[in-house]
Write a structure and sequence with these properties.
- 2 copies of one chain form a homodimer.
- The first copy, chain A, is of the alpha/beta class.
- In chain A, the strands form 6 sheets. In chain A, strands 2-1-6-5-4-3 form a 6-stranded mixed sheet, with helices on both faces.
- The first copy, chain A, is globular, with a radius of gyration of 25 Å.
- The termini of chain A are far apart.
- The mean pLDDT of chain A is 95.
- At the A-B interface, helix 4, helix 7, helix 8 and helix 15 of A face helix 4, helix 8, helix 9 and helix 16 of B.
């Protein structure tokens, strides 16, 4: 078979890199890269999630990791492609501990972006396909234990007679996805969840909620949604899916359970977690603890004078039960992001007199536009037809360095502005302040930098434009017995005030469960250090503390949307499994802490 | 692109056939077939499941159906293959009502086997892929109904305020698979199941049971088992899967419910089914009723003198709770097929003194041999790698006329005998009578002809060979107070007698629920009319009454293993949907009834 010139170019480039890496010749390796270059590693070389930017950082990373990681056997996987002068290709490789998959992009024959990811640990491959279990032990044995008996023993004994290696606090999509990965890797794990049933974290949200991300972006590992699944999952339907998933993946999922406290015993190298399991106190002693309590962290409830004299109801958006009880009443919703919009729209649909208080400008993007421009190439029916499986899409997504992302996002945002000009004009005419972020880069950068400040429009913006959802602007200065008073002196009568005022950083959970000291030690979670609103510098180049080692040994943070819960649970699970198996995992590039929250 | 000569040959052949069919020129059409030829149609031309054998039968079928079905647009799908002089190719086609998929095999340029199958009805395509629902109605609407509310309304109202179009009696794998298909086709359906939970029909069987068929053969429609699913599902694990499947497919599944009686009202064209729903009497009035109570029909319990004087326990195999209560006791199992072997082995594993009574010879085949020789090409990890999806495998399987099957099966059986000669020698040495069927064709023909007479060995045969399971041979003539007496006068002491004596024909369920008259009108179910043991002639060429119209209007039988439940539910669901939509469905070739049971 003859190869294309592009494929040949990548093969040659990989061969040279392999030789250089094999010899430990860092200089020869970095000479293969251009001036503008990036190497993002997902736990294959660094036992960390890191992006090395520029030749010097790449050299530092390789110098520190080559001897231990021993990358080898770099082989192009399929043909290379060329788009606008950028040649890209998939490749596979090995390390001392595992097998990996990478994606490289060359410009003028020099490396521009390199992504390496650990896919499996040698000797600990997933029991899938040809490795799947038999299910039955053929033959006849006295005192055979059936699957049901073994499962029952595990459900009864784990956490009592035997200790789990890992405990995940929080059983939403993040805890469930990670739990499934650990299950298949054979890591004994207990998931601690306060709700009655898996999926309740969705079920208990406001009743009209549907996912704002489309189905192709939302799959869980191992059991994808079927082909007839709706584009936007209704929350209760998603709840049912999570519940069945938890069951058939055989997760050890403790419902009605809450971690009351946790303490790391340095000497023993294990956690002591006190769990209230439906009224019973159980002490768990795992080697690893994951906080998967939601990337949104602890709810922010603002402290406003007069909250004690207000005679109506006050709720954080996370506590809002939906509109049913409020028909005919007056509701003021403080905030103008996703939750505020969804809650306002549902209230309006139920005939409630509802006012949204916009305190600062908001990024709004129509759901269809976002799906088409931002996700369409990777996560859509079209992408599926083009052979872009979910795994491939995730890795392509992950292969773009965070430094490079804003330029790509800005082009999408510019196209969004053009395409939906009328829509934005109508919103502004109604007095609603729209922004596209500090540097006009739109939704996804806001999500990565601060996890807030936007609304994906599924209908509420039209109500705002038409004045059906009333709009007020300014800061809330106080509450009276029956109203909300803004800084311009205006008074909004209210039977209910909903604080759609967001959430703190995830390390707030560490403060709550472990201690303020440990929370401060690990520092702020999420955000890239972009030095934009709510994402202070210095530049980190990765999401802080997410899915990777933190300054607190054996403490991990896991969270994000369904996409992130799916994709990054892979790397977190491999890090935990490697530790359980006693594989050497020297962490390269653990960042300093710059912000406490 | 240049085509292979084989592909060109099939294209030409299909073009000629299309022309002939389009002109209604039956003679020209059958002239394209060889002397030895078959056309198996799965409801695309005949609204029936029929095999026309030879040119005359094909001519008769085409003459009767062409004007209504209007087959057209026959297009080869992919490239043709040639194996041992047989050229085969997939093709697509249309009819007046739908779109179909076919598989044709040519020998010397003439048609040998032709399979046509209906895949979808025009205007009633499945809501999948690009047709999937949105899940959310973007925009804001007063009194919007959420998914959860709509689902709740349906669960409460169906069968009370509104009538289902279809009722399925029996919620095992058959009822569930068919229910899922009807759900996606938008046919309001209630499944009536006597057990507490979906999956209980498996859970309640003996505790060591695992499926004897491998995972690739067992998928349900729409949600395949994940890649880590065991090769042989343990029964409780399968039960959990069925339960979650029923839930996420949103089936209207009535548990703790039993059909007490059913009566067809010819004038109204509907059934009146009296259901005991957990103590409440509900009358359902669907247009269609499906008996999916298991292909095995009503349990056969033999009538033996002394059953009234025996002081121990007596059970049919379907009632056997597993070995736990019988350690240290003496058990006699009457019968030597699958259930008998599994029950004996589980009893031996629990330290029970167990004797198997072999009344007639049994076909035994080792599970691994069967998997490799009989299923490997279509249902295995290897097949998946070769691009043979489950759908493709099912259609390939279905494309082989039942008349042709014995020769293929005999070759496999011969190879089995060679390969496992030592095994069979050991069994015979232990006194166990092994057969390979009247014509030495092995397991699958026994399954299709009589649904009994075999054991797929997963370990019990070794116990028989070693004498751990004691073997007795002969007919049971009577029971004493504490023993089973055989026709040679030998006496087997027993605390428990298990009758692993099989089941009657499925029309026994019609007798139980509807009337003996209707059961006799539809006649025996299952079996091909092969004129071999327990499958009396005349030759039918298809399984009697299964998944196709019967002599009783609006009454259908559905059952079989997981493979058949999956594949044939497609054709049964399309037949029911077509009737609901008022599509003309003239049935060709409804067979006469020759046997009452």
């Amino acid at each position: 078979m003859t190869e294309t010139p592009q494929t040949e170019a990548v093969q040659n480039w990989l061969a040279k890199l392999e030789t250089a890496l094999g010899r430990g010749d860092v200089q020869a390796a970095v000479d293969l890269f251009g001036d503008d270059c990036y190497w993002r590693d997902l736990v294959s070389l660094t036992w960390n999630i890191t992006t090395s930017e520029g030749r010097q950082q790449i050299a530092d990373m390789l110098a520190a990791t080559l001897a231990g990681a021993k990358p080898s056997n770099l082989k192009i996987d399929g043909e290379a492609n060329e788009t606008d002068g950028v040649v890209d290709a998939w490749f596979t490789f090995e390390t001392a501990a595992g097998r990996g998959k990478g994606l490289v992009r060359l410009i003028d024959g020099k490396g521009w972006t390199m992504m390496t990811s650990l896919q499996e640990l040698k000797g600990h491959e997933l029991p899938q396909g040809t490795h799947r279990p038999s299910g039955v032990e053929h033959g006849a044995f006295r005192d055979r234990k059936t699957w049901a008996e073994a499962r029952q023993d595990e459900l009864k004994g784990l956490g009592y007679e035997t200790q789990p290696y890992c405990v995940i606090i929080g059983g939403g999509q993040g805890g469930i996805a990670l739990g499934a990965r650990l299950r298949l890797l054979g890591v004994p794990t207990i998931i601690v969840e306060k709700n009655e049933r898996p999926g309740d974290s969705w079920r208990k949200r406001y009743k009209s909620l549907c996912l704002h991300d489309p189905v192709w972006y939302d799959h869980l590992p191992y059991i994808p949604f079927p082909e007839h699944w709706p584009v936007f999952s209704p929350k209760d339907k998603l709840g049912d899916w999570l519940e069945m998933y938890t069951r058939v993946m055989e997760l050890d999922y403790w419902t009605k359970s809450e971690a009351k406290s946790a303490r790391y015993d340095e000497a023993k190298g294990e956690w002591e977690i006190v769990v209230d399991r439906d009224g019973e106190e159980v002490v768990l002693r795992p080697k690893q603890m994951v906080l998967a309590t939601g990337m949104s962290g602890v709810p922010n409830v603002p402290d406003i004078p007069g909250q004690d004299v207000f005679k109506g109801e006050q709720q954080h958006s996370s506590q809002h039960p939906g509109p049913d009880a409020y028909a005919g009443k007056k509701v003021v919703v403080v905030g103008s992001n996703n939750s505020a919009h969804d809650i306002c729209a549902a209230l309006w649909e139920s005939g409630v007199d509802v006012t949204m208080v916009q305190r600062s400008s908001t990024h709004v993007v129509k759901s269809n536009t976002l799906m088409e421009l931002a996700l369409g190439a990777l996560y859509s029916e079209e992408a599926v037809k083009n052979g872009i499986t979910t795994d491939k899409a995730d890795l392509i997504f992950a292969s773009i360095p965070y430094k490079v992302l804003p330029a790509i996002q800005k082009a999408q945002a510019d196209e969004t502005k053009r395409r939906d000009k009328d829509f934005y004009d109508r919103l502004e005419k109604a007095g609603f302040d729209v922004d596209f972020g500090d540097d006009e880069t739109g939704l996804f950068m806001k999500y990565l930098r601060r996890g807030s400040g936007y609304y994906i429009d599924v209908g509420a913006s039209e109500l705002v434009a038409k004045g059906d959802i009333k709009l007020a602007k300014g800061q809330v200065v106080r509450l009276t017995e029956d109203s909300v008073v803004l800084d311009d002196g205006s008074e909004l009568p209210a039977d209910l005030v909903v604080y759609a005022t967001g959430y703190g950083s995830m390390n707030g959970w560490a403060a709550k469960i472990i201690s303020q000291e440990v929370a401060d030690k690990v520092g702020k979670c999420w955000g890239l250090g972009s030095d934009t609103t709510k994402d202070p510098g210095p530049w980190e180049g990765e999401l802080r503390n997410m899915w990777k080692p933190t300054q607190q040994e054996a403490l991990w943070f896991h969270g994000g949307n369904l996409h992130q819960s799916r994709h990054y649970s892979q790397f977190l699970s491999l890090q935990i499994k490697a530790r359980m198996e006693g594989i050497d995992t020297p962490v390269y590039g653990l960042p300093e802490v710059h912000h406490l929250q």
